[in-house]
């Protein structure tokens, strides 16, 4: 073991002693263990000399000390959390560095005297945040940090401690640092909160120092707005009621067949789905206005929409909805009869738009039409209420860009002619001209034969 680590010439062995002389050769010595930075004596970071910081890294790791910087004095330091002294001592010592992701609350005591009340920075709230900045990521000792500073925000403005009678007014009792960090191990921001108290002179003050680390909530990514696209068959229709978008519904079907004012039982209106539903309505009401309001609530729901979505997507286009309600008179009574709606017809006009190979379905408009009738109240029998939803396709298909090819017929009347009514693209209408053309062709044929016979001789 000794031969592996120590030069044998440095070893001296006697009867009672075993000596090893120190070696001047430092090349074989082990690397020095990293030492904690030397911290100053006061908590307000007025370091007498710059501490030795660790290597530069793009993020903080667990138990890394938090680096600080004071721009006004160009002094680098470490964020420290006062803690009780060793053994049984409860007095505060200011050499305990705060460590990354270690949320700790420590309590210790300080002696308050007439002199320390004015001069001790640990009793003044301003010394815990004045000109204090945290370094966003660990940086080497000589590396510039001005572009990586996070200011410490004080949550309030606290007065300095003062002497009044026999008490120290506005002495620091609690200090809480809240440091926010990102998932990448970078410091995002920091804030400090201080609680003050009045302490009698020559009395111990119990201080509590807390450091809390909180993960910053990621900024929500703005939702990508889907462009407006055509409606799919069976997709629910969306209406806008006083600028609030809601699905359109129709009269629901109950098992008993009676009408219910419960809006949760209403069925959604689906694109291109023609439906008709009905129920029986009865009410003991003796007022026309009350009866009318009950029936409207069953047929249309809460209200009729002002607009209807022409397409799907997060930013659809909107089309106007026309509503035709029942006309009534303010002087109507139950004896004379009430004009009440008994049927609602919802008509939706739509069309296919776009190229023929990929058309998109768009709604062009809608209409709510109430059918009305005069009834006397109270109703002597149940009233049948119906709702009909119909979709009308108004697509206009264009003509094909090219028509089908048509044959061009020629009817020759002679075997040697090109046509009885055509010669070199010119149309000859009268028969005499046709005879002249025919004789000319015959004469040309005879001359050709004669010429051939003359050449043969």
TrEMBL record:
BP GO terms, sorted: cilium assembly; smoothened signaling pathway
InterPro entries according to UniProt: TCTN1-3, TCTN1-3_dom
Domain called Tectonic-1-3: residue spans: 58-213, 232-393
PANTHER family per UniProt: TECTONIC FAMILY MEMBER, TECTONIC-3
Subunit structure: Part of the tectonic-like complex (also named B9 complex).
The protein's name in its UniProt record: Tectonic family member 3
């Amino acid at each position: 073991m000794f031969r592996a680590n120590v030069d044998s010439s440095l070893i001296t062995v006697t009867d009672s002693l075993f000596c090893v002389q120190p070696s001047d050769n430092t090349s074989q010595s082990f690397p020095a263990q990293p030492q904690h930075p030397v911290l100053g004596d006061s908590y307000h970071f007025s370091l007498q000399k710059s501490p030795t910081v660790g290597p530069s890294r793009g993020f903080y790791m667990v138990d890394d000390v938090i680096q600080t910087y004071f721009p006004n004095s160009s002094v680098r330091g470490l964020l420290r959390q006062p803690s009780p002294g060793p053994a049984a001592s409860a007095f505060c010592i200011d050499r305990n560095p705060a460590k990354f992701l270690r949320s700790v609350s420590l309590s210790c005591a300080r002696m308050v005297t007439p002199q320390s009340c004015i001069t001790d920075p640990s009793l003044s709230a301003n010394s815990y945040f004045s000109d204090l900045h945290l370094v966003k990521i660990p940086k080497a000792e000589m590396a510039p940090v001005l572009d990586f500073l996070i200011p410490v925000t004080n949550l309030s403005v606290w007065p300095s401690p003062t002497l009044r009678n026999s008490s120290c007014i506005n002495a620091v009792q609690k200090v809480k640092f809240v440091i926010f960090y990102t998932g990448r191990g970078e410091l995002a921001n920091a804030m400090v909160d201080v609680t003050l108290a009045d302490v009698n002179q020559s009395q111990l003050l119990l201080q509590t120092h807390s450091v809390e680390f909180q993960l910053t909530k990621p900024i929500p990514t703005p939702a990508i707005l889907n462009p407006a696209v055509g409606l799919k068959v069976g997709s629910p229709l969306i209406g806008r009621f006083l600028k609030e978008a809601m699905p359109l519904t129709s009269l629901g079907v109950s098992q008993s067949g009676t009408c219910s004012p419960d809006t949760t039982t209403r069925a959604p209106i689906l694109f291109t789905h023609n439906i008709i539903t009905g129920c029986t309505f009865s009410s003991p009401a003796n007022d026309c206005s009350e009866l009318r309001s009950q029936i409207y609530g069953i047929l249309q729901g809460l209200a009729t929409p002002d607009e209807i979505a022409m397409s799907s997507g997060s930013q659809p286009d909107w089309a106007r909805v026309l509503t035709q309600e029942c006309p009534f008179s303010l002087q109507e009574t139950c004896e004379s009869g009430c004009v009440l709606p008994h049927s609602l017809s919802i008509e939706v006009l739509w069309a296919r738009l776009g190229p023929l190979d990929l058309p998109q379905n768009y709604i062009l408009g809608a209409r709510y039409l109430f059918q009305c009738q005069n009834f006397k109240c109270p109703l002597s029998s149940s009233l049948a209420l119906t709702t009909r939803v119909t979709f009308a396709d108004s697509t206009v298909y264009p003509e094909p860009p090219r028509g089908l090819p048509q044959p061009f017929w020629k009817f020759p009347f002679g075997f040697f002619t090109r046509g009885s009514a055509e010669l070199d693209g010119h149309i000859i209408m009268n028969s005499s001209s046709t005879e002249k053309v025919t004789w000319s062709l015959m004469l040309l044929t005879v001359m050709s034969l004669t010429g051939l016979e003359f050449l043969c001789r």
